Amino acid sequence: MTNCKENVQRAIRISSLILLLFGTTLFQVQAQDQVKAIEYFNKGVDALTQKNYKQAIELYSLAIKEDPSYTKAYYNRANAKLTIKSYEDAINDFDLTIRQDPDFKKAHLYKGYALMKLKMYDTAIFSYTEAIRLDPSYSTAYMNRAICLMNMKKYKPASENLRKVVELQPENATGYYNMGLCYDKLEQYDKAALAYGNAIKINPANKKAYMAKGKALMKDEKYELASQDFSSALQEDPNMADAYYHRAYCKMKLKKYKGCDDRL
């Protein structure tokens, strides 16, 4: 009876030792794979920095082969594909990134960008909305969502997104300029002129904003103010034929015929 107990105990010790050795070996193999994955990943980062995008993609792929759970490798590979305009492949990698880390807000953002480049605006808006859900102060996501809405000719919700952009980034001239475009399309010319004016305050050399503001004021029959903006545009670029034409039109409306034909 004693021998039987000893044999059982011996068998248990041997089994435990085998499991310990096997587990240690498995851990060592996994650790080695992770080390290789990190090495490939870092080489991929170097290649990306040097703008060797195809090489970077290959290196990130090797990192993923060594460690299929390497979230950042999927994300970086997606960005490399995005840079070479391989948008569909980039979207697939962003999806793999999000599958592993659903809260990776930049993966949602850049997936939206890839979809936007493919003119898949509805789906892009969904990705931007997810990014905003994860970070309600994500101004880039609001801006890109607004651009999608503008492309879909949904100018009112686009203007609301742009209002959020400038609320988060008061010095964002592009946000104000795009807001002006939306108000123009909505025929709210006073609001458009105000938005363009804010863009000009931030960037006084913005000739496009002077032109857009002048045209909005002209549509609102504020010809004197419009003429001043066209003159400001010409100070920035004396070769803007469009500015001469619209300034002349304003002068005619104001019955200031002298100088109406300047540079036409």
Description:
- This protein has 264 residues and is mainly alpha-helical.
- Among the domains are: 33-106, Serine Threonine Protein Phosphatase 5, Tetratricopeptide repeat, CATH 1.25.40; 204-264, Alpha Horseshoe (Serine Threonine Protein Phosphatase 5, Tetratricopeptide repeat), CATH 1.25.40.
- The protein is built from 13 helices and no strands.
- The chain has helices spanning 2-49, 53-66, 71-83, 87-100, 105-117, 121-134, 139-151, 155-168, 173-185, 189-202, 207-219, 223-236, 241-253.
- Helix 1 (2-49) packs antiparallel against helix 2 (53-66), helix 4 (87-100) runs antiparallel to helix 5 (105-117) and helix 7 runs antiparallel to helix 8.
- It is elongated and about 80 Å long.
- The model is unreliable at 17-29 (pLDDT under 50).
